[in-house]
Write a structure and sequence with these properties.
Layout (H helix, E strand, L loop, with lengths): L1 H5 L5 H6 L4 H31 L6 H37 L7 H20 L24 H30 L12 H32 L11 E2 L2 E2 L8 H35 L6 H14 L15 H29 L8 H20 L5 H7 L3 H31 L5 H27 L21 H16 L1 H12 L16 H4 L40
Antiparallel strand pairs: 1-2
Length: 560
């Protein structure tokens, strides 16, 4: 089977452009997503400048920049990197599989993603600009917005289709193509997080895709799935069939959007787990408990969505239900962080670049999680809703949380992908300044939110009397955003320098002295399509470090 796979790709187009090799598809996802994230980051910098220097861009363009920043960073950036890139590249290697279960489906998932991203960005070239109805696309505003909103929905449909195809592939691959001896409780924690994340995507995305198609019909076919009767636009009653419910969209959107938080964070935790275990040189504390926590967290993620909708008047009983489930879902997250902390206890910690990013993930995600608890209770959520407090909470989860995990993963697995390690000095410079400026950037948002500053204001709150005491933070955050941008230069320089550097004739296939199959059963970089000369067999768990009486301080999974 492996020999047949190796013979599939012969020319440039089938090998690099329309590849069916999971490794190259993972690289395609990663490179494309990083470019999208770079563009999304630039949009944020411009928005920050506008909030200090009002009039730099128009309010409508500010709204478009806000929509596209959020959409790009989540749907075109972080998720494609952490699932599409890391998942595609590493999961088959970690389970001893020659490829994904459906290579052609895998290729199609990338190109659906690429098409969705290009379609969304094309909105900037249309009359009225890109979508400007908020990244949540709430009707009825979204239903009467410019043509850029239509393009945005088409892009989302393509992206959702991509995610569904990729999720099916990961699920089937994990269930059907595990190496002999690789039982469920011998799976690396990273594989568990990718598997559970794929189930979340598979169950949560279809309602939003259906909702997107219905909103397209509202816009293009004059239906009224989300359009209420008697809507006044520009002083005139809008003529439509009426009878639709804008709240229906909110329910369908948040049924995906809150599980989406765990789509971001669970693979990040999988990356962190691999790096921590490797750099403390001992097994993860509570591995089975961590697996059970992830499974429980995935289940609970589907019954908490309406805590985003406390202001819609859902009633006291339903508010209590969603408040209670929100408090419950925090428990497995706390368990996971606790397991990481207890794993560190007594470990022989190596403070390399990936470990520094992994260690910083723990308190940063902790801040993001703890600041989210008040938003899960109606009493505290009502005054905090739609303020910068929400922005601060979310960004602490996604930016110093998930994005730091992405950086940790890049530094950790770059030698596997290229056969060449990244420079440690540049890596540590990148970490130190990213850590400093991220906190300087996001922490003031909590102060602004507690003072009542609303989000999505093109002038940053300058026109409101009650915010005059805290608008000066906008200047501070603008400079912090510049510092954060400059802090990424060592990372970019490091990547370019390392790629240009000549590879050693006999590169170390396992420079981190890791136990999992991608390091112990395959060379660095792995061989072409097929991964392994022979499928490895697995005899032990994923984190057998510092085993008493062992020849070395680690025992590979494939060592009998």
């Amino acid at each position: 089977m492996i020999k047949d796979i190796k013979c599939n790709e012969k020319n440039f187009w089938t090998k690099y452009i329309f590849s069916q090799d999971h490794k190259w598809i993972g690289i395609q996802y990663g490179v494309t997503a990083l470019f999208f994230m770079l563009f999304g980051f630039w949009l944020m910098v411009v928005m920050r400048y506008q909030m200090v220097h009002s009039g730099t861009i128009s309010p409508d363009m500010y709204n478009s920049f806000g929509v596209m920043h959020g959409t790009i960073m989540v749907f075109l950036g972080v998720v494609p990197v952490i699932v599409g890139a890391f998942g595609n590249y590493l999961l088959p290697l970690q389970i001893g599989a020659p490829d994904m279960a459906f290579p052609k489906l895998n290729m199609a998932s990338y190109w659906f993603y690429f098409l969705g991203g290009v379609t969304m960005l094309a909105g900037f070239a249309l009359p009225g600009g890109a979508a400007n109805s908020g990244w949540t696309s709430y009707p009825p505003l979204a239903n009467i917005a410019t043509i850029g909103q239509t393009v945005w929905i088409f892009g989302m449909v393509f992206i959702i289709t991509s995610s569904l195809l990729g999720s099916i592939n990961i699920i089937v691959t994990t269930i059907q193509l595990r190496a002999p001896g690789l039982t469920w409780m011998r799976l690396p924690f990273f594989v568990w997080t990718q598997l559970v994340t794929s189930f979340i995507l598979l169950l949560a995305f279809p309602p939003l895709e259906a909702a997107g198609i219905l909103q397209l019909m509202d816009r293009l076919a004059d239906t009224s799935f989300f359009m209420p009767s008697g809507l006044v636009v520009g002083g005139e009653v809008l003529q439509n069939s009426g009878g639709g419910s804008p709240l229906l969209w909110q329910h369908l959107f948040w049924f995906l959007a809150h599980p989406e938080v765990y789509v971001l964070i669970l693979p990040a935790m999988g990356i962190i787990a691999e790096i921590i275990a490797n750099n403390i040189r001992k097994p993860l504390w509570g591995y089975s408990l961590m697996v059970k926590s992830v499974l429980f967290l995935a289940f609970m993620s589907f019954i908490v969505w309406a805590h985003h909708m406390f202001l819609t008047g859902m009633g006291q009983g339903m508010s209590y239900f969603f408040a209670i489930t929100t408090m419950i879902i925090s428990v497995p997250s706390v368990i996971l962080l606790t397991c990481f902390i207890l794993s560190l206890w007594g470990g022989s910690i190596r403070y390399n670049t990936p470990m520094l990013f992994a260690l910083s993930f723990i308190p940063m995600f902790g801040i993001g999680g703890l600041t989210g608890l008040p938003l899960g209770l109606p009493l505290s959520d009502i005054p905090l809703h739609d303020t910068y407090y929400v922005i601060g909470h979310f960004h602490y989860v996604v930016a110093p949380g998930t994005i730091f995990a992405i950086f940790a993963g890049i530094y950790f697995w770059f030698p596997k992908i290229t056969g060449k390690p990244l420079n440690e000095i540049l890596g540590k410079v990148h970490f130190i300044f990213s850590f400093i400026f991220m906190n300087l950037f996001f922490m003031p948002m909590f102060f602004q939110g507690l003072a009542g500053l609303s989000r999505r204001l093109a002038d940053g709150g300058q026109s409101y009397a009650h915010t005059q005491g805290i608008v000066h933070y906008n200047d501070f955050m603008m400079y912090a955003s510049w510092g954060l941008a400059i802090a990424q230069l060592p990372f970019i320089i490091n990547i370019i320098m390392t790629l240009m550097k000549k590879r050693d004739e006999n590169p170390d296939s396992n420079p981190w002295k890791a136990t999992t199959l991608e390091w112990t059963a395959a060379p660095s970089p792995p061989i072409g399509h097929g991964n392994f000369e022979t499928i490895p067999s697995v005899y032990r768990g994923p984190y057998e470090y510092s085993v008493p009486d062992a020849e070395e301080d680690f025992i590979p999974q494939n060592k009998n």
